[in-house]
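Sample 1 of the test manifest.
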Amino acid sequence: MNNDTIAPDNMVLLKSRRIFLKNSFLTTAIIVISGTAFFGGASALETFKVVQEDLFPHATKLEIHSFSYLMLILNHSRIRDDEKSFLRNGVQWLHEEAVLQYKQTYTKLSSNQRQIILQTVAKKQWGKKWIAKMLTYIMEATLGDPIYGANTNGLGWNWLEHTSGLPRPKKGYL
Amino acid sequence: MMYDICIIGSGAGGAPIAYELSNAGFSVVVLEKGKEYKEEDFSKDEIGVCRRDMFTPPLDEEFHVINQREDDGTITRYEGNKYNWSFWNGSMVGGSSNLMSGYFHRMKPNDFKLKSMYGEIAGSNIVDWPISYEDLEPYYTKVEKVVGISGEIIQHKFLEPRSCDTFPFPPLEVNGVTKWFDMACKKLGYQSIPTPRAILPHEALGRLGCSYSNFCGSYGCATGAKGSARAALLQKSDAKVITEAFVYKLESDATNVTHAYYYDKEKNSHEIKARIFVLAAQAIESSRLLLNSKNKYFPNGLANNNGEVGKNLIFSAGGVGRGRFSFENLTPLQQTELMQTGLFFNRSLQDWYDYEDEGRRYKGGTIDFLFEHSNIISRARKEIFDDDGNLIWGEALQNKIHKTLTTSRVLTFEVFNDWLATDACFVSVDDEVKDKFNIPVGVINLYGHPHDIKVGTYLANKAIKVLEEMGATDVFMNISSSAPPNLVAGGCRFGENPKTAVLDSNCKAYELENLYVTDASFMPTGGSVPYTWTIYANSFRVAQHLLKKLS
């Protein structure tokens, strides 16, 4: 696999991500309230990171940049606004479920408790859809072309003994 | 400037006319809504091509309204932008032929006379074509040579009459699993047919041969081996192609189209004058343009004083099925054969193109077999549910994906049978919503006749027997009335009666002297094969007519 041409494009993607992070609504803290009790704020970005790890830790072992890829998705011209909103709302609802069960936001829970929360929301209509979307974007990060900067050195492809089609893209589609 | 020919749409319906007329010295302009891509622009980027739909318009800018007829007869309205329901195919020079798989079958003589051969079916609008297979045969042959079709002729009971004994190009190389398929068919008494493909196996026609890259359908071809309208025809013609030109209205007087008006990407309006106008914007959009082109002579839309434009929309009926082959049931040699990538499967069955069941004669169809698409993201994503439909994640998901994708492979099949035209399946334009150009969007009114499912199920059950005989597990089929967006035809059917047809036998509008429609809109019935070869052939036929007319 020839990765010589990838780095410059990655830089472009990285820059666009930084710009996005500066301006995004995702940098705003999520306020979690249950009844009249205030349970503090939670970072949407931090929550995405934790959830991705909870859902598919193998990506980290493969050195997949799932979180960076998700940021790219949340700024993608072809991802609809309602999809982006749903992803963010899912974070809010996840925290609300965590507070309901454990009086703590999701990211403050233990690993076992977080898994129980995921199992709980997976039985709800929104939760099933939200987790499926999160997994879909993890799969895109893990198995998409390395040009997008997530499937580093094609390690995701190597994991599944996958031979990519040729020619590979010279730049990502954003 | 007054052009001899103005063609709206550069796909399989328009390109043969551009090719023939421009090469004969006529001035031809092609207005194409999409961008131009060349071989060097195409890659196997699953994310860009298949997951972000880079070759189709964003649905928040352009979409359709889909009226779905429910089982109880009620209609549910879906605005495509709100429900993420797309009926777009390839919006680019060469159209969706760039992205086709290139499974090429000719229609058969009986397909041209469905009503005469099989009789009326209640609730459907079956008719005979105004031309015969014999009329189209020379043009099927021309497509083989000019566009380039590879394959091997096998004698079988439904092989259509041919004016040449062989394909001009030998068959593509195939995967070892085709031997298992052939053996299973032999045991069952079925006739395995090598599937003809619009793919060059070697360098020819000024194009490179197939690189066996293993990704064909949905992707543009980087070698030019695939016989797209762009690679095979437009790149070899002097026709002027104006890209990113969305034609929003055709203007006419009482007898002739006078102007085509289009918006460029900046939404500036332009006009084109021509002696002849050829509409080939793909079935739904061609009807939409005519219906949106109202004037005092045609208050219901251009060429629509008889009210037939948009009517009798059809798709390819049938469905899909699959079976899985797993390492635990295979020898080491078979495992190696199974996982060979890059090689084609290329097997079809047409044993039941015409069949009898319970004393009644039916028009049947074609079954194409192919490996599950190689898209790795798509295949991995299918594993996020367990057998009970529950989401899985973590180590369980990791193990499931790894085992499934590294120790098994899925063989799929596609059934093609007639989608019977009915009064309930048609194109109209919407009164409420408009696209980014402020033009009323097309409305796709969907309805599938129950007969279609009956025939499709009969055929799928035959395919299932083959998969079972081969030793496949998890065998599954899904035959339904779901309309495949990439297999659409009708809306401007041709016929002998000006009261019930939009076009005459040369695909000229009955109501206008210089308007032709040559995408799949002209087809009154669709046959039981993918449409593209027939669209190409008919467009070459109309080109011959236009050459005579203009000369």
